[in-house]
Every structure is written in C-alpha cells, then in structure tokens.
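Chapter summary example.
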Amino acid sequence: LVKTAGRMALALAHRWDRGPRGWHCVAADFNSPHVDTLWQQRDPSLLFSERSTTMLAWRFLREGISTPWHLTLVLDQHGKPQGYVVWALMNGLFEVGDFFLPDPNHQTRSLLRTFMSWARDQGGHSIRLEFMGPPQIHAQLAQAGITGDAALTSTARVLNTQALTMGANDIFLGMACVF
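The structure predicted for these 179 residues follows.
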C-alpha cells in the first residue's frame, strides 16, 4: 500500500512538473543558427557525435527518410536557447530522434520536462527515446520521469525496454514515459 501510494505521488509530481519557470518550446528549422551555437557551447571534455546543422539535416532530412522529423528549441525565461529536441509524432507518441544541450549532466531533466509539458499540450500522450550515455544523464532522465524501469513510477510505464552496458560508463537504454 505504501509502495503504491508512493508511486501515485511520484506520478502526480511528474504530471504537474512543467520544467523550470519560464522555460518554453518554440518550433525551429533544422538550419537554425541556434543549433550551431548550442553545439559550439558544448563541454569539450564530453564525447558527443556531431550535432551541427549540417549533420542534423543529413540525419533527419535526407532523401529517402519517410518520417516527418521536427526540431523544437527549448528556451529559458530570457529567451536564450538551452537545447533542442528532434521529434516525430506518431498517433500521440512523440518519438525523440535526438536531443542536445551543452550541459547534459545538469540540465537534461529541465530540457525534457519542458519538452514533455509542451508535447502534452500538443495532444501527445507519451514520449519514447533511445539513449546511450553515462549514468549521471540516466539519472537526469529518471528525474524527468523517463525510465527503463517500470517499477519506478506508474507514469513512467515502459513501452519498450532494452538495456545493454556499452562499457564502464555508458549504458544504452530504450525507454518511454506515458504522461
């Protein structure tokens, strides 16, 4: 009973958590200069695959890609871009193809909670993503309510889970959250 009550309380907290005050989402083109600016602000000590406008266009807009991908910038209360999410909408499910922010160890939760709130306002019912990275970012994902562990919350019901350790610090996880 206590376990169930705890899950319900956590589910409600995730439902009403809209991210940091004033953060919001705006549609952008894949050639937005903000994408390159965010990429240039990355911590050079972190290993990322390239996220320039050229690479994103190749990955998501090249000929033969049938999925209609979109890019949404996440802005702070002052209108400064904090990151972006690349997504496709399929019957209320927001499939995340990529997300990026210069400080993923500390702001992934904020970026994704803001995006999830916006996605819910757009009529979405869930989000799905695949991610490979260090445990500290997985912790940020879990704090956002996105997890590969169905036992954590009832709102973070796993639709497709596949975990594989890729090395001492990297974990690949397919995960989802129903909101």
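To summarize the output: Residues 3-17, 149-173 have pLDDT under 50 and may be disordered.
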